[in-house]
Design a protein that fits this description.
The protein is mostly beta strands. It contains three helices and 15 strands. The strands form two sheets. A nine-stranded mixed beta sheet has the order 1-8-7-4-5-12-11-14-15, with no helix packed on it. A six-stranded antiparallel beta sheet has the order 2-3-6-13-10-9, with no helix packed on it. The longest helix has 14 residues, at 7-20. The chain starts with 6 loop residues before the first helix and ends in a 6-residue tail after the last strand.
C-alpha cells in the first residue's frame, strides 16, 4: 500500500496554496472535512480504525512555535500478537501538503517509537496511521492550534544553512525504563517549504527539502522516511531500536536537488 510523497503531490499542494492564499487561523465551521479525501488519496479508501489502545500520539494542543511543533508517536501490539508494525504515516489535515512523512520500519527494527518536529500551518487535526503486517490500518488523532508554520522564515540565513548542508549529528540517548534503547539523528538542511518569502527580495524561496532518510544498525535497516514540506528546518528524528550487536550506525539522506549525504557512528553512547 504505497504512500510515498511524490514531487508532483508536493508541487500541486504548493500551487494550490499560492492560488488560494495562506490560511492563517482556524477553518470556518462550514468548511468541508478534508479527511475523507485524504483517505482516498493516501490510503486508497481503506478502512482505518481509530485505536488509541494500539497507536500512541503526543503533540501540544497549542504550538509555541508553529514551525517547530514536536510530535511523538508509536504503535505497540498486544503481547503474543504475531503481526508487526510496517509503517507509521503522519498526516496533518490542513497543511498545504497534508502527508508530512511516512516512516517504513525494518523487519527487525523492534520498538516503533518515533519523534520529530514539524510545521503546522493552521488549526488542524494531525493523525498517525499505523499499518500492520496484515494490512490493517490503525490511527490516533490530535487537534493542534497553530498558524503559519509552513511559511515561517528560516531561523538561519541561507548562506549559513548552505555552509552546513548535509552535516549529520547522531546520539545514543541515556536509557530509561520506558525507553531503554533510543537514538537521535539530526540533518543540517534548510528544508525550505516553497512557501517562505525572502525578506529582502520578497520572492518565494524555492522548494528545497530532505525527501528521503534511511538509518541502519550495521547492515540492518531500522527505518526509512519519505518526507514532505512539513518537516521542520534541520530535520530531527528520535527513534527506538533493538540492539543487534552491530559496531556502527549508518545514515543516508537525499534532497530534492539530488544531493546525497552519508555518515556513520560507533554503536556506543557518545555526545553529539
Amino acid at each position: 500500500m504505497a504512500r510515498t510523497i511524490s514531487r508532483r503531490q508536493t508541487l500541486a499542494g504548493l500551487a494550490l496554496v499560492c492560488a488560494t492564499g495562506q490560511r492563517a487561523f482556524a477553518q470556518a465551521v462550514d468548511d468541508p472535512d478534508p479527511w475523507p479525501d485524504l483517505v482516498h488519496m493516501f490510503f486508497n479508501d481503506a478502512a482505518i480504525e481509530e485505536d488509541r489502545s494500539l497507536v500512541s500520539f503526543e503533540a501540544p494542543e497549542r504550538a509555541e512555535d508553529a514551525a517547530l511543533v514536536p510530535m511523538s508517536f508509536s504503535a505497540k501490539l498486544p503481547e503474543g500478537d504475531k503481526r508487526r508494525v510496517v509503517k507509521l504515516t503522519l498526516v496533518i489535515d490542513q497543511n498545504p501538503v497534508p502527508l508530512a512523512a511516512a516512516f517504513t520500519l525494518g523487519e527487525k527494527a523492534g520498538d516503533t517509537r518515533i519523534s520529530t518536529r514539524v510545521r503546522v500551518n493552521s488549526y488542524t487535526n494531525a493523525r498517525v496511521v499505523a499499518e500492520l503486517s496484515d494490512g490493517s490500518l490503525h490511527m490516533a488523532t490530535r487537534y493542534i492550534k497553530a498558524s503559519g508554520g509552513c511559511s515561517a522564515p528560516m531561523v538561519k540565513s541561507m548562506d549559513e544553512a548552505l555552509a552546513e548542508l548535509g552535516q549529520m549529528k547522531f546520539r545514543i540517548l541515556p536509557p530509561t525504563p520506558e525507553a531503554p534503547n533510543e537514538a537521535l539523528l539530526m540533518v543540517r538542511h534548510p528544508n525550505n517549504s516553497g512557501l517562505q518569502m525572502d525578506q529582502i527580495t520578497h520572492l518565494y524561496v524555492p522548494l528545497f527539502i530532505v525527501n528521503r532518510l534511511r538509518v541502519w544498525q550495521g547492515d540492518q535497516l531500522l527505518l526509512s522516511m519519505e518526507g514532505g514540506i512539513s518537516i521542520s528546518e534541520d530535520p530531527n528524528i528520535r527513534f527506538a531500536y533493538r540492539p543487534n550487536g552491530a559496531a556502527v550506525f549508518r545514515a543516508e539522506a537525499s534532497d530534492t536537488e539530488g544531493h546525497v549525504f552519508r555518515a556513520e557512528w560507533p554503536a556506543a553512547p557518545s555526545d553529539m
